[in-house]
Amino acid sequence: MLIPRQPVPSLSVETVAHGHFDLSTRSAARFTMVVFYRGLHCPICAKYLSELERLVPEFEQRGVAVIAISSDNEERAAAMVGKVRAEKLPIGYGLTLQKAREWGLYVSESRGKTSIGIEEPARFSEPGVFLIRPNGTLYYGAVQTMPFARPNFSDLVSAIDFAVAHDYPARGEYTGAV
Fold first, then answer.
1. What is the b/e burial string over 38-53, where b = at least 16 CB atoms within 10 angstroms of the residue's CB?
2. Does the structure show a pLDDT above 90 at 27?
3. pTM of the entire structure?
4. Considering the chain, what is the average pLDDT of its residues?
5. How many domains does the chain fold into?
6. pLDDT in tens, 104-116
7. Does 6 reside within a domain?
8. Of 101, 42, 36, whose CA–CA distance to 70 is shortest?
9. 54 - beta bridge partners?
């Protein structure tokens, strides 16, 4: 489990159209938002990433760099870029399942073709959204076992405004006895 205010695991992937991404060299003013998505086979992911593409400028205005990443290969990631018309949103690919687990993501096995007729990979990671401070520590994290009921990006924009205005600390940091 990742702990707020503690360093997150390393993260380095290629993107379809925005070059190499390495979290350790990312220079966002306030946060880097990493959105892990299931892959091309997931129609909910496509809708979710379309909304994120629309809101990238809102995040950037707040000093938040954004990237979406899956364990898909380059070809499938490129197809997702086309599907969601991602121009501003960097879409990374090639996340290993070992790295997904380091980030606390759940891993699922294929159930064949999805409702949109695309074959699921043999194994893939489930969704997660993380806000990482420039010093590499976790500020916010949400992971899911299912493709639905994800954090709303408009709500996150408002939450970032509140957190910055009130110097709100990362919560969930306590690791002692309970």
1. bbbbbebbbebbeebb
2. no
3. 0.96
4. 96
5. 1
6. 999 999 999 888 8
7. no
8. 36
9. none
